[in-house]
Amino acid sequence: APGLDALGEDVRRKVAEHPCYSEGAHHHFARMHAAVAPACNIQCNYCNRKFDCSNESRPGVVSEVLTPDQAVLKTLAVAAAIPQMSVLGIAGPGDPLANPERTFAVFRELAVKAPDLKLCVSTNGLALPEHVEELARLKVDHVTITINCLDPDIGAKIYPWIFWNHRRVRGREAAEILIAQQQKGLEMLVERGILVKVNSVMIPGINDQHLAEVSRHVRAKGAFLHNVMPLIAAPEHGTYFGLTGQRSPSPQELQALQDECAGDMNMMRHCRQCRADAVGLLGEDRSSEFSLAKIAGME
Ligand code: SF4
Ligand code: SF4
Questions:
Q1: Which of 58, 66, 235, 248 has the smallest C-beta neighbourhood within 10 Å, fewest atoms?
Q2: Measuring from atom 6 of ligand 1, which residue has the nearest CA?
């Protein structure tokens, strides 16, 4: 895997100050997620819409959706209170790029009001290509794409449908479109020097044998970091494919896959699958200190 020393100064700085991109940074730099994006444009079989987007978050977590104005207010309050706060990310509770007006309203305001904050977004990738220009213009330095497969036959088992050109597309065709959009988005981001992290959800029996190939492929295309996350299958989060039998990978299976990928790729192993409204250092959650009521009181 490429070492940090091989990177240019600009990339090194982007990496060093983002707690998710650099394991060393995660004790020193904090991030905040602003939960402004309720809608989603696809359906993942592992998602329960009552909870935060499982592409980034541990299932079973419900974040309160903020308006863009509320999110800006909260971000400025958090940045004032937590000096290590270096990154503002938008990661849900749905797909940030399926809510482009809301997501970009926050980025636009913060680019003016908090120009030192690094901006970060995570997405399933379906709407990514049409937004890459705007992300680059607003100096969004970090983008996470959740890529669970390259093979549409596997994709058809993960995604029952996507919403595309004003209609619902199902099955293999849906997976084909989503995969093509993800790959195109990845290429466009890399061309513009935006750092890309790829998240993959490891689903035993579905894509577990396929993810090492995904890892090699996205690395060859210039993704910076790969984060393989375990499917967290629990009855209260709903079923998978409408079946109750889908299991999570064991910690050993997850680690074996991460080790296999690590030969070729920078792997993230400190992901905490944070809430869409997480605040603070990774592994601590201070979001309750910054409820809207409290922020209104700080003004
Ligand atoms: Fe759910 Fe996220 Fe998948 Fe949308 S992209 S269906 S919010 S897990
Ligand atoms: Fe970072 Fe993982 Fe948390 Fe996202 S979910 S902010 S990648 S630690």
A1: 235
A2: 43
**CATH number of the domain enclosing 72:** 3.20.20.70
> Which residue ranges of the chain lie beneath pLDDT 70?
1-7, 59-60, 234-244, 297-299
The answer to whether the CB of 271 is under 6 A from ligand 2 is yes
Q: Which two tokens stand for residue 204?
A: 């035993």
- Report yes or no on 289 lying in a domain: no
Please give the pLDDT value at position 239: 56
Q: Is residue 65 part of a domain?
A: yes
The closest residue, in CA terms, to atom 4 on ligand 1 is 40
- Domain count across the chain: 1
Regarding the beta carbon of 58 and ligand 2, being less than 6 Å apart is answered no
Ligand 2 atom 1, closest CA = 20
- Residue from 41, 44, 121 whose mutation best tests the ligand 1 pocket (most atoms within 8 A of CB): 44
CB-CB neighbours of 296 under 10 Å:
11
Domain that holds residue 147: 4-283
The closest residue, in CA terms, to atom 8 on ligand 2 is 271
Residues 32/99, Cβ–Cβ less than 8 Å:
no
SS3 261: helix
In a domain, 127, yes or no: yes
- Looking at residue 281, what is its pLDDT? 83
Answer yes or no: is 112 within a domain. Answer: yes
